[in-house]
Design brief:
The complex is a heterodimer of chains A (226) and B (316).
Chain A (H helix, E strand, L loop, with lengths): L2 H4 L3 H28 L6 H30 L5 H26 L4 H10 L1 H18 L3 H7 L1 H8 L1 H16 L5 H30 L18
Chain B lengths: L13 H4 L2 H14 L3 H12 L12 E2 L11 H6 L12 H5 L9 E6 L5 E4 H4 L6 E8 L4 E11 H7 L8 E6 L17 E5 H4 L5 E6 L2 E2 L9 E3 L12 E7 L6 H5 L23 E4 L6 E2 L7 H4 L13
Parallel strand pairs in B: 1-4, 2-11, 5-12
Antiparallel strand pairs in B: 2-3, 4-5, 5-8, 6-7, 6-11, 8-9, 8-10, 12-13
Classes of the chains: A mainly alpha (226), B alpha+beta (316).
């Protein structure tokens, strides 16, 4: 593996970050341009709602894929992209929610409340969005320091539940063709399954090494602050 | 896959580039002056630069049952479709339905009829004078359009086969060819729909063979489809091959897929919500703000009597 891949310099990482940042903006820019030029099809509001929703889901899954990728490729610096990816997932979720409240329902709060209460697919979508807010709000280094690594990490584990809610939101929304939500569910199951498997392995290792080695007594938490 | 333009700049159609008032005026002019098919097509081509064949223009007469509301752009009507056999995204049918051959085509009219038989599509085109019916279309998904259909009353066809007294319902089947259509069992194929016989005989119920004065594009259900304007769009089955008079209520595709969500009647009803979305409002394609949905899609005056004494929450 070339050296810059294994241990990129600060400049190289900044470059990768800038590229990922711009790439994450592309779908939003396409939608904005499409709205401006009226090229979003016959039902542009539906197009924006669906696209922002799907990008939220994709970015959530990409964020969840960072740890496994890092573990299996040894590219530890990938972790430094995770916060940005997670924040983009939140940004698209916020755009999705805003589209619904503004363009779709036009601030008809009564209709919105009925939707959230009566329609399970909207209930879980709304729940997923609300649960994302504290994660986005505690994404800064200062927040990590304030909360302490352990508490911060256990709070941010709610991303697993959020991702499940998000896939359920898509699954229950579809009328008949479940192929797409099924694919997202499969990817999520793999990403969550991997973590369950790691946990199980860790548990077994601890059981099989009496007494446990000092460095395995506590889970290793490494938060890169840069 | 997000932002897909199904048509390049090369195939811009006249309705898109002509200001609507001018366009509508021209269309009315065509209707009023009763120009021949060829002359109409020549004028059309001359003004709009379209590549459509001359023979695709249909001569029609106006109908008092038409609405005077602004029509949905032709481009939207022909590019935003639910025709799951050709894919489940709205743009899929326009992209894929071209594979379907609409000639030769026959429609079998069978079951409880005195004179059941098979009709050739060209025979059906001459069965009754073709009328232009400008109808509202309300989809169960919460959007709507106003479409100038070309067609004739379904009653004209049913009367030709002389329904027996025992016939209470009409079952419809779509064309299904796994070679050119979706094979995944998203719905049960062939697509099946049904009406009560009195609904089928209602003057608003038509078999459409065209829209915007031209032969029906494949994605809109060529060569012949049902249009029942007071019911959700999924009742208006496309590309019909079989019409069967039955004694029992026929099974229908969407009801089979999700009986709690899609009823047999599927009358447009703002008071009865779909379990997953409200039906109180709709978005007219081309507009931003939603508008209230009307009972029976605004056709209550003509059809409410069909359902007298029925609980429309039970028979949704």
């Amino acid at each position: 593996m070339p050296n810059f891949l294994r241990a990129p310099s600060g400049t190289q990482i900044a470059l990768v970050k800038a590229t990922v940042f711009l790439a994450c903006l592309v779908p939003a820019a396409q939608l904005a341009l499409g709205w401006q030029n009226d090229t979003l099809g016959a039902n542009p509001i539906e197009t924006i709602t669906r696209a922002s929703g799907e990008w939220t889901l994709r970015l959530l899954l990409i964020t969840l894929a960072v740890s496994p990728l890092r573990r299996y490729t040894g590219l530890h610096w990938l972790i430094r992209l995770r916060r940005m990816l997670g924040l983009f997932a939140f940004a698209y979720a916020a755009a999705h929610f805003t589209t619904y409240v503004w363009l779709d329902q036009f601030f008809d709060w009564q209709a919105i409340a009925r939707d959230i209460l009566d329609r399970p697919f909207i209930t879980v979508g709304f729940a997923a969005f609300v649960l994302l807010i504290p994660l986005a709000a505690t994404s800064s280094n200062a927040a990590i320091r304030r909360l302490g690594g352990r508490r911060w990490q256990s709070l941010h584990r709610s991303i697993y539940a959020i991702a499940i809610l998000a896939v359920a939101h898509f699954w229950w929304l579809v009328k008949a063709d479940l192929l797409k939500p099924f694919i997202y569910a499969l990817i999520l199951a793999a990403l969550l399954g991997l973590r369950a498997w790691w946990r199980e392995q860790e548990r077994r290792r601890q059981l099989s090494v009496p007494p446990p080695a000092k460095h395995l007594e506590r889970p290793v938490i490494r938060i890169v602050q840069k | 896959m997000l932002i897909r333009s199904t048509s390049g700049p090369a195939d811009v159609r006249p309705a898109e580039i002509t200001p609507r008032p001018l366009f509508e005026e021209r269309r009315r002019f065509l209707l009023r002056s009763g120009l021949g098919i060829a002359a109409g097509a020549a004028l059309w081509q001359g003004l709009g630069g379209t590549a459509r064949a001359a023979s695709e223009r249909l001569a029609t007469i106006a109908s008092p049952l038409s609405t005077t509301e602004a029509m949905t752009e032709r481009k939207a009507v022909t590019s935003y479709n639910n025709f799951y056999e050709f894919g489940t995204d709205k743009g899929d049918p326009a992209q894929n339905a071209g594979r379907m051959l609409t000639r030769p085509w026959t429609v079998a009219v069978e079951g409880l009829a005195g004179k059941p038989r098979r009709f050739d599509i060209d025979e059906l085109l001459k069965l009754a004078p073709l009328e232009e019916r400008i109808y509202r279309l309300r989809c169960v998904e919460g959007w709507s359009m106003v479409i100038p259909w070309v067609g004739f009353p379904l009653a004209a066809l049913l009367k030709a086969v002389e329904p027996l007294g025992s016939a209470k319902y009409v079952e419809f089947l779509s064309h299904y060819d796994p070679e050119i259509m979706l094979r995944r069992p998203v719905l049960q194929w062939p697509y099946a729909e049904g009406l009560r016989l009195d609904e089928a005989l209602h003057p608003l119920t038509i078999l459409a063979v065209g829209l915007y004065g031209e032969v029906l594009p494949n994605q809109n259900g060529a060569p012949i489809r049902l249009v029942v304007p007071w019911k959700y769009g999924f009742k208006s089955i496309k590309s019909i091959t079989t019409i069967r008079l039955t004694e029992r209520q026929p099974a229908t595709s969407w009801r089979r897929a999700a009986p709690h969500e899609y009823g047999f009647y599927a009358n447009v009803n703002p008071e009865v919500s779909h379990p997953r979305w409200s039906q109180a409002t709709e978005r007219r394609i081309g507009e931003i703000r939603k508008r209230p949905t009307l009972m029976f899609n605004g056709y209550a005056e003509q059809v409410a009597s069909l359902y007298q004494g029925m609980d429309l929450r039970t028979y949704y």
